[in-house]
Amino acid sequence: MILVTGGAGFIGSNFVLQWLAAQDEPVVNLDKLTYAGNLRNLDQLRGDARHVFVRGDIDDAELVARLLREHQPRAVLNFAAESHVDRSILGPAEFVRTNIHGTFNLLQAARAHWSGLSDEAKRRFRFLQVSTDEVYGSLAAGDAPFRETTAYAPNSPYAASKAAADHMVRAYHHTYGLPTLTTNCSNNYGPFQFPEKLIPLVILNALAGKAIPVYGDGKNVRDWLHVDDHCGGVRKVLEAGRPGEVYNIGGSSEKNNLEVVQTLCAVLDELRPAAKPYASLITYVKDRPGHDRRYAIDASKMRRELGWQPAENFAGGLRRTVSWYLAHAEWALSVTSGEYQKWVSANYQERGAA
Questions:
Q1: Helix 198-207 crosses helix 314-327 at what angle (to 10 degrees)?
Q2: Cα-based angle 180, 160, 201 (whole degrees, multiple of 5)
Q3: What is the CATH number of the domain that holds 167?
Q4: In a domain, 44, yes or no
Q5: Measured between alpha carbons, how far is 334 from 352 in angstroms, rounded to an integer?
Q6: Span 291-317, pLDDT tens digits
Q7: Which residue, among 18, 119, 133, 26, has the nearest Cα to 71 in the 3D structure?
Q8: Burial (0-12, 13-18, 19+ Cβ within 10 Å), 141
Q9: Which are the catalytic amino acids?
Q10: What is the rounded distance in angstroms from the CA atom of residue 239 to the CA atom of residue 258?
Q11: Is 5 left (phi over 0), alpha (psi -120 to 50) or beta?
Q12: Domain that holds residue 26
């Protein structure tokens, strides 16, 4: 049995689906079901006894302790997080509560659980923190990609909250001996991603004939990683990672935002042609405050130590992602509620033109 937190969100739900497709080890799935958590992501597991869903908050100490006591998981994987930079700029308090204090609460509960295990169970237990490359800050055009030894330099409230959580995880290993693992991933994309993020936002806005917003000059660079590859990397780290270590999981696919948007428009032109090219909807908006210029991940430690590398190239993964959203219009409609539209208005329309 493993305990997965945030397992109804984008990455967490993809991980749970991949995990149970590959093996029969049960999953206890703890998710608060905020705006970005969606049980419809897990529809195919309805009636599957291997999947136990619990609605709750990682910051609920009593609940987390009870789940650990009742289910005795051999591992805790923390996917639960507030994760959107723009939302952290508009309202940082929730990021501090969930990402920092929630992770602290999980660590406290995991430490208490681990301390009561037999020696063999202690040796096998793992606490895996799923983090982000944004904790490392921003790179210049000629800088080497982030490595596990790169100093933390977070530039947004979101990144700072994840950095703080990562430091707590490290401290619990070094101070108490808790067998922790931390993964730092690059930008994910794929099925079930909430449409506040760039790729699904572009797809859904384009299909609706709405403006496609691009921050600033569109030249901010991200390293793109298909969510299936990320989940496979996390499984590898859980299986064979060394306690106390950090592993960077990246797609080796650096693209600037404008390039991603233009590629998406071209794929949509081919798969769902409209009266005008979708690229005609591209609209430049005022840049995000403190917008990091470039992220890039050096995943050589994953290749060298764990034999992992991404299976999906960006072109193929992007086409597969567009096809998924085209085939799941009902899912997209269900998550783009009135509250979502209010947020889009606050974040994009009220920014004004670049």
A1: 50
A2: 100
A3: 3.40.50.720
A4: yes
A5: 28
A6: 999 999 999 999 999 999 999 999 999
A7: 26
A8: exposed
A9: 133-134, 158
A10: 37
A11: beta
A12: 2-192+225-251+294-311
Give pTM, 2 decimals. Answer: 0.93
Are the C-beta atoms of residues 65 and 40 closer than 8 Å to each other? Answer: no
Q: Which amino acid is at 177?
A: G
Provide the domain count of the chain: 1
- Look up residue 261 and give its amino acid: V
Length of the chain: 354
Is 189 within 8 Å of 228 (Cβ atoms)? no
What whole-number distance in Å separates Cα of residue 158 and Cα of residue 197? 14
Could you read off the pLDDT of 17-48 as tens digits, one per residue?
A: 999 999 999 999 999 998 888 899 999 999 99
User: Could you tell me if residue 232 is inside a domain?
Assistant: yes
**Among candidate residues 354, 343, 339, the one with its CA nearest the CA of residue 288:** 354
Measured CA to CA, the distance from residue 239 to residue 235 in angstroms comes to 6
* 3-state class (DSSP) for residue 221: strand
Radius of gyration of the chain (CA): 20
Place of tokens 């034999």: 307
Residue 158 lies in a domain: yes
- In-domain check, residue 321: no
- Looking at residue 104, its amino acid is F
Query: Which residue is associated with the tokens 């299976």?
Result: 311
> What is the rounded distance in angstroms from the CA atom of residue 310 to the CA atom of residue 307?
10
